[in-house]
Amino acid sequence: MENQTIAAIATALAESGISVIRVSGDCAVTIADRIFRTRGKKHILDHADSHTIHYGFIFDGEEIVDEVMVSVMRAPKSYTMEDTVEINCHGGVWITNRVLEVVLRNGARLAEPGEFTKRAFLNGRIDLSKAEAVMDLIASDNELARKCSVSHLQGAVASAVKSLREKIIYEIAFIESALDDPEHISLDGYGNKLSGILETLLFEIGRLLDSFGNGRMLKEGIKTVILGKPNAGKSSLLNTLAKEERAIVTDIAGTTRDIVEESVRIKSVSLRIIDTAGIRKAEDQVEKIGVERAVRSAEDADLILYVVDASIPLDENDTAIVSLVAQKNTIILLNKTDLTAVITEEDVSRMFQNRFPVIRISIREQTGIDELEDMIERLFFHGKISFTNEVFITNVRQKEALKEAYDSLVLVKESILCALPEDFYSIDLMNAYSALGRIMGEEVGEDLVNEIFSRFCMGK
Fold first, then answer.
1. Which of 15, 70, 177, 287 could bridge 282 with an S-S bond, Cβ 3.0-4.6 Å?
2. Which DSSP category does 284 fall into?
3. Are the beta carbons of 427 and 253 closer than 8 angstroms?
4. Do the bridges between strand 329-335 and strand 303-309 make them parallel or antiparallel, or are there none, so unpaired?
5. Residue of 331, 378, 327 lying closest to 225 (CA atoms)
6. How buried is 402 (Cβ within 10 angstroms: 0-12 exposed, 13-18 middle, 19+ buried)?
7. Element (DSSP H or E) covering residue 7
């Protein structure tokens, strides 16, 4: 199948100005030449130069199907490193499918999801980390996620991993050479030297592992949980940030019984906001379940927005919330400041021992929301992320490979401390080298490759 010429619609299948049908493989130009003719009804693509575009018509037999522009890109200077043709036809579901049908009837087969990028990987144009960056770039929904994906696509992850592997393979080669030729290459004192090298490698891999938290938030969004007592304004806050009525809002306390989740983009970051049931001692069984779910959500949160009703006194329910948010990034929102306040910013700050910022808001009057959005961006990313010299791991598969490499290098350190023979070092160093190689697609099985590319959209 990998030798067959493939074709698919590369643009969204919807009414639009143009659509693109991509064809790739040894017979891509020949197939396109069969169905494409110029205004003078000439077949010209077989002899067309690479990276040229041609105006004409797609024919099904003697019937004109559409007026098109056809781009020719010859191997190896194409996305897949194969001969590639892109047919730019008029946009629209029916006409796009009609052109694709003509291509398929003339020798191509329908591409599987992600098969064009898979071929780029198999043909050596990109490594697996760059291939995964392609999908992340397509799925990015904020500016920071886009920048991170572009950084990966330009080789930030691959460059960092290659540097680590070069240092490791040098030490493996030295040990093997010394073991093969002990008369000329001495291993005396090598354990101490290797220990210093391992400290550097562990530090660098550890830094990549530590970046996963921020990387995950860049890619998936900051998991943000709204907490507070019933009727404090939690659901109204969700609706305000989402800019639509996502949660039911009434004056009846305890309206929200289950969690409500919504993805929201604020400035340069994305939030996965979860509205929860009000925290209080509930007698109703359904409300109890809602409160339990709220607590579990808070435990997994990246950020907690604690909404306090300024018009009612603090009580034991607020004290319970303090214990939930003690170790979390938290912003306290003193809501209903348009009403007569019975608690102040100082009261709330004192309850949390001045650990968290307090913002006065009124959801009814829409005040304080801009300050909240600025605070969220500043709290997580503002001024902290540079995509020129810092690498962020956003992929769980890559994180697991890094963790395996880290653990293998720790075993090397233990072997040195236990004064084990040097060939023990080589075994664990090679395991670390192999684990890092899997990030770029070396030593990965066919099943894993197929599973990764199956997540891609059709035509990419």
1. 287
2. S
3. no
4. parallel
5. 331
6. buried
7. strand 6-9
Dist CA 215 CA 234 (whole Å): 28
- Cβ atoms of 79 and 153 within 8 Å: the answer is no
Cβ atoms within 10 Å, residue 178: 16
Using CA atoms, how far apart are residues 358 and 343, in angstroms rounded to an integer? 12
Long-range (24+ apart) CB contacts under 8 A made by 32-39 are 32/70, 32/72, 32/85, 32/87, 32/103, 34/106, 34/107, 35/59, 35/60, 35/102, 35/103, 35/106, 36/68, 36/70, 36/87
Helix (H) or strand (E) holding 177: helix 156-180
Between helix 190-210 and helix 422-440 the angle, nearest 10°, is: 30
Tokens of 134: 């392609």
Nearest to 363 by CA among 254, 265, 240: 240
State the pLDDT at residue 383: 47
Say what the pTM is: 0.76
Q: Other CB atoms closer than 10 Å to residue 165's CB: what's the count?
A: 20
Amino acid identity at 151: S
Alpha-helical regions (H) of 183-282: 190-210, 212-220, 234-242
Which residues of the chain have a pLDDT value below 50? 248-254, 256-257, 383-384
Q: Which residues contact 48 (CB under 8 A, 6 or more apart)?
A: 29, 54, 72
Q: Is 86 left (phi over 0), alpha (psi -120 to 50) or beta?
A: beta
What pLDDT score does 168 carry?
A: 96
pLDDT digits (tens, 9 = 90+) for 137-187: 888 877 778 888 888 888 899 999 999 999 999 999 999 998 888 878 888
Number of residues written out for the chain: 460
Specify whether the backbone of 392 is left (phi greater than 0), alpha (psi in -120 to 50) or beta. Answer: beta
Residue written as tokens 């001045």?
Answer: 354
Question: Whole-angstrom Cα distance, residue 427 to residue 175?
Answer: 11
Strands (E), 74-212: 84-90, 109-110
Coil, strand or helix at 269 = strand
Beta-bridge partner residues of 303: 224, 329
| CA–CA separation, 302 and 371 (whole Å) | 19
Q: Report yes or no: 83 and 116 within 8 Å, Cβ to Cβ.
A: no
Q: 406 is written with which tokens?
A: 């880290």
Whole-number Å distance between alpha carbons of 417 and 177: 22
Closest listed residue to residue 10, CA positions, set 166, 151, 116, 169? 116
Q: Which ranges constitute the DSSP H helices of 304-453?
A: 316-325, 345-351, 369-380, 396-417, 422-440, 446-453
Q: Please name the residue that has the structure tokens 């041609």.
A: 54
